[in-house]
């Protein structure tokens, strides 16, 4: 469970699900080394910003991040830092990406974000695993939990 962030003058939480997409949706995350370099960059940036990287997940052409403790930063500022630092570090570690991409940009200009409020590891796992299918197909989280409980009950009966 994600806990409230406490500082000298405030208590609260700000948790986000962020999705970033490489420019032209090249399947760069099929390469485990690129994925690893990207995650390491995200972790280092999160540490510098004093935010928490609760989890990451990848499709072949996009990355999901679950971040928290964002009280001092806007979503736009966080995304700008995450994209900027990771693009530079990943391209330095994997120069072959410059040849496969049509431009100097690693990430596309846009991003997706959603405030996720209080959440659990199970909910983050749900978002990562179910966000890999078409993004416009919606499955309600309560329906998902019900299906999972039914599957579990079936296994034990």
In short:
The protein is of the alpha+beta class and 157 residues long.
Question: What can you tell me about this protein's structure?
Answer:
- The chain has 157 residues and is an alpha+beta fold.
- 43% of the residues lie in helices and 18% in strands.
- It contains 5 helices and 6 strands; from the N terminus they run βββαββααβαα.
- α1 packs across α2.
- The longest helix is centred in the middle third of the chain and has 19 residues.
Biggest sheet features: 4 strands, antiparallel
CATH fold topology: Alpha-Beta Plaits
Shape: globular
Order of helices and strands: EEEHEEHHEHH
Number of helices: 5
Total domain modules = 1
The CATH homologous superfamily is named Transposase IS200-like
Contiguous runs where pLDDT drops below 50 for at least 5 residues: 134-138
Number of strands: 6
CA radius of gyration: 17 Å
Q: Could you give the distance between the termini?
A: 29 Å
Structural class call reads alpha+beta
CATH class: Alpha Beta
Q: What is the percent of helical residues?
A: 40-55%
Report the sheet-strand fraction.
15-25%
Going across the major beta sheet, what is the strand order? 4-5-3-6
Query: Can you name the CATH architecture?
Result: 2-Layer Sandwich
Mean pLDDT over the residues: 79
């Amino acid at each position: 469970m994600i806990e409230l962030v406490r500082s000298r003058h405030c208590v609260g939480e700000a948790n986000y699900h962020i999705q970033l997409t490489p420019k032209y949706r090249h399947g760069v995350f099929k390469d485990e080394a690129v994925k690893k370099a990207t995650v390491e960059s995200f972790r280092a940036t999160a540490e510098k910003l004093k935010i928490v990287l609760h989890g990451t997940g990848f499709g072949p052409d996009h990355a999901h991040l679950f971040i928290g403790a964002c009280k001092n930063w806007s979503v736009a500022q966080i995304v700008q830092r995450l994209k900027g630092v990771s693009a530079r570090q990943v391209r330095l570690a994997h120069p072959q990406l410059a040849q496969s991409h049509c431009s100097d940009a690693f990430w596309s200009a846009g991003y997706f974000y959603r405030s996720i409020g209080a959440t659990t590891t199970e909910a983050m796992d749900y978002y990562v695993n179910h966000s890999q299918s078409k993004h416009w197909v919606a499955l309600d989280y309560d329906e998902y939990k019900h299906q999972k409980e039914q599957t579990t009950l079936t296994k034990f009966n």
